[in-house]
Amino acid sequence: MGSYTILQPRQVEWIERSLQFESFYRTWAYKYMAANGLIDPVGEGLSQVETTKFKKMKPGRISFGLQNLPDAVARVDTVDSKIAVIGTKVLVNKQHVDAWVNNTANIAGGTTLPTIMISEQIQTLFNQVDAFLFWGDAYRTDLNVGRDQEPWASAGEFKGFLNAFTTKASGAGSDNNQTAAGDYVATVDSFIVSLKNAGWDSDQYTIFSDLATWQAAGKGNNFSSTTLTTERDRVLQRTDVTAWFGSPNAFDGSNSRMCITSPGRSMGANPRVPRTRPYRLLEGYKFRVFPLFGGGLDANMNFQIAIIWSGVLEKTHDDAVIRSGNQTLA
Predict the structure, then answer these.
(1) Complete domains list, the chain, with CATH
(2) Which of the four, 18, 79, 128, 223, has the lowest number of CB atoms within 10 Å?
(3) Residues 12-32: pLDDT tens digits?
């Protein structure tokens, strides 16, 4: 039996690993980035990263002689990307830590192990990281209570999937009206054609939208056939669409409600040829856990734990995400 006045390193490591594991299956946009190898660690504590990237080169053309061949000069740009920091502080009572250590943490309502307590508290931080990937610094201040808070007054420092990249009108009439049958199918067709024309032809397209759009695509006035197949079902039957994520963190905004993207440009069947990535998440702190007060107790007999994530969505190709305007839903 034991009673701790200092949070032990192994306990901190356990909490940290639990959070990093849970960040994969309790998010939408972050999970997509991780699953497709689009996250690059850049080191902790950085506030800015300098990246060198290539510009698009000119294509070849038919020529009447070797002297008339076009010049395709390799051009590079240097881009400075600021790193955003999102964090929270969790307080865990000493009694709960002692109960954890002594394996007697069963109370009314279930176990209150610090890892479980922090796991429940941390969903808000997961929500905010996800919303940051969708909206940059225009994300909402609180995504935990009713999800109806006003967005931050965006400073425009950071952008996400739904307010950067290329905008294209949705709907069968290209009017951002999604109220009639056929509108969602036409939107997906049109957006995927735009991606293919831009060279993003991997046939692994992912759709992101707010929950209202996802729900509207499955309503009765958006039936796609007489067999009561909704347009959302018909879209997901396409072999080139891998998923449609309707996320509460992709809250409906004034600019966009849905987007389609591909995780890379197809380079053929040769595994030695690297895939061109459309964008990447530069990640600093990966849900790191830092005990405050040296891991000791504060004046109220609580252990205080700071949990920090930092990163930025680096847009390397404007045409790799096609997003809608502000749609009218059924």
Answers:
(1) 9-55+75-329 (3.90.1690)
(2) 79
(3) 887 788 788 888 778 889 999
